[in-house]
Design brief:
By secondary structure, the chain is mainly α. The chain has helices at about 10-20, 25-40, 50, 55-60, 60-70, 75-85, 105-120, 125-135, 165-170.
C-alpha cells in the first residue's frame, strides 16, 4: 500500500477493514482506494491537506477541516479511517471532540467544535450559552470532563434538549 500504483491485496483490504472497525465493505474499500489514487497526485502513497481538501464536500465541512488540522497528511489506511468518522455506520469518534488527545472532552473542546460548526453566525457568548444549556440539561456542569460513553446513545446523557439550541441563544427560528 505504500505506492498507489500497486494493487490492493486481499490481505491489505482486510487489514484496512480491521483498522476502520469494519465500517466499510471490501468493495467500498476498493472504491476508496481508487479515489485515494486519484487524490494522490504525485503517486507517493500519501495525500496532503491540499489534495484532500480539493474534494469540495470536505473543503466546506468544518469537522473534516478540524480533523485534518490534527494530521499532517494521510496514507491509504489513515484515509479510510478518517472517512469512517463520517460514515453513518461508524461509532462516534471521541477524537473529533478531544482536541488535546487526553481522553477527556472539556467544555472548551466542545466550544471549539461548536465554533467550527457555527462560524460567524452566532456570537461567542451565544455559543457558550447554548453549550452550557445542553450540558446542564444532560446533568453536567461547565467544568465536567466527558468521556466517550457520555456521547453514546445507550449509556450517554447527551440527548436532545427540551429547548432548541437556537432558542437558548436567543436566535429567532422559522
Amino acid at each position: 500500500m505504500g505506492n498507489t500504483s500497486s494493487m490492493l491485496t486481499q490481505y491489505d483490504i482486510e487489514e484496512v477493514q480491521e483498522h476502520c472497525d469494519h465500517t466499510f465493505s471490501q468493495q467500498e474499500i476498493v472504491s476508496l482506494y481508487q479515489r485515494f489514487c486519484q487524490l494522490d497526485r504525485n503517486g507517493g502513497g500519501f495525500i496532503s491537506a491540499e489534495e484532500f481538501l480539493s474534494v469540495p464536500e470536505f473543503a466546506v465541512n468544518p469537522l473534516s477541516q478540524r480533523l485534518f488540522r490534527m494530521l499532517d497528511g494521510l496514507n491509504f489506511k489513515e484515509f479510510v479511517a478518517f472517512l469512517s468518522a463520517f460514515s453513518s455506520r461508524a461509532t462516534l469518534q471521541q477524537k473529533v471532540y478531544d482536541s488535546d488527545g487526553n481522553g477527556k472532552v472539556t467544555f472548551h473542546d466542545l466550544l471549539d467544535v461548536l465554533r467550527d460548526l457555527t462560524g460567524q453566525f452566532i456570537s461567542e457568548q451565544q455559543r457558550e450559552q447554548v453549550l452550557t444549556h445542553v450540558l446542564e440539561e444532560a446533568g453536567y456542569r461547565k467544568d465536567s470532563l466527558l468521556v466517550l460513553s457520555d456521547f453514546s446513545k445507550g449509556g450517554g446523557k447527551l440527548e436532545k434538549p427540551s429547548k432548541s439550541y437556537w432558542e437558548v441563544a436567543g436566535i429567532p427560528t422559522l
